[in-house]
Amino acid sequence: MPIISWRLLYWPIRQLLFGIVFFSGCVTIVSIQWLILTINGRHTQEWLDDSKRWFIQLLTFCTCWFTSGTTLRLVFKDREAMARYYNAGQLQLPRRAIVIANHQMYTDWLYIWYLAYRNVGDMGAHIYIIMKESLKKLPILGYGMINYSFVFLARNWQRDAEKMACQFNETSKRDSFWMLIFPEGTNMSHNNREKSHQWARKTNKPIWNGVLLPRVKGLQLAVKEMGNQVITLTMGYKGCSLDRMAQDVFNVVQLYIWGNQPPLVSILIDVQTIDREVEPWIESHWQEKENEMLHYYSNGDFDGVYVDVPLVVGDKLVHILLLGALLSSLVAIYYKYLVNV
């Protein structure tokens, strides 16, 4: 009888375990959300915010255990900026702000959300993300994201403007919020860069290779409803270049099926105030991002001083307990509903 090498079984078992842990974790979170909404007490919003924290903890757990692991590099333009924004292992950033970033790949938001969760006084419970309307139809995940008050767009301004204004206004009433916006509207790819070039030629805009032309209307509305303080992030992934794009190298399949995480994610951090019309401000600021990305690809990192932060959930014991609890729950459900039918 032939002996099957453990190496042949490693990836199927690893993928199965990831699916079990992630799926059971998501089911657990949305079930608790449903219970919270059913009770509908005076702490409903606070508890829903807690469930938002649980989701980034679940994602971080899966990232740490089922991928090759990664490190976040927090980059600041100079030592003065680092002293202003980073102290004792925590980022000293505004707790009520619009957050904008270039969009390198679909999971940019994961690293930004993790940054909020671990390095900004637990802002992970107070982050709001703008995303495609189709995502709210995802089984289980869509229900959870709706309860997180994420903003879902149909990419039709007539349909989206009123809904965005309403959600921005409601969010602005909270004590703490980060509204995450990717002004480019889509991630960097060869096809999207060519579309950006075509639009730039048509509208007499600059042609950029490191970033895409930003869209203005959503940011204008956000500034009107939520204030003009902006945390601006520039994302860079080690191993990528102008032609070898992050979305090609580290897509979702590579990350969570094959376990290939970027070994280093550099995030250039700054805080600005939009003190003029949004359109000329964003165009000028995106030119800065273009220069930053060209420097990144030429030199392997952004220009500035930095501190490295490992992507971790916490103590290893927490990992083991969480994994054990999730697997135990799944086994109990299996025997209760499948074996005893």
From TrEMBL:
Keyword entries, A-Z: Membrane, Transmembrane, Transmembrane helix
MF GO annotations: acyltransferase activity
Listed GO biological process terms: phosphatidylinositol acyl-chain remodeling
Pfam family, one: Acyltransferase
One of the record's GO cellular component terms: endoplasmic reticulum
Keyword Nucleus: no
Transmembrane segments: 16-36, 56-76, 317-335
Coiled coil: none
Record bears the keyword Cell wall biogenesis/degradation: no
Domain Phospholipid/glycerol acyltransferase residue range list: 97-238
SUPFAM superfamilies assigned: Glycerol-3-phosphate (1)-acyltransferase
Signal peptide range in chain numbering: none
Protein name in the entry: Phospholipid/glycerol acyltransferase domain-containing protein
Taxonomic source organism: Pichia kudriavzevii
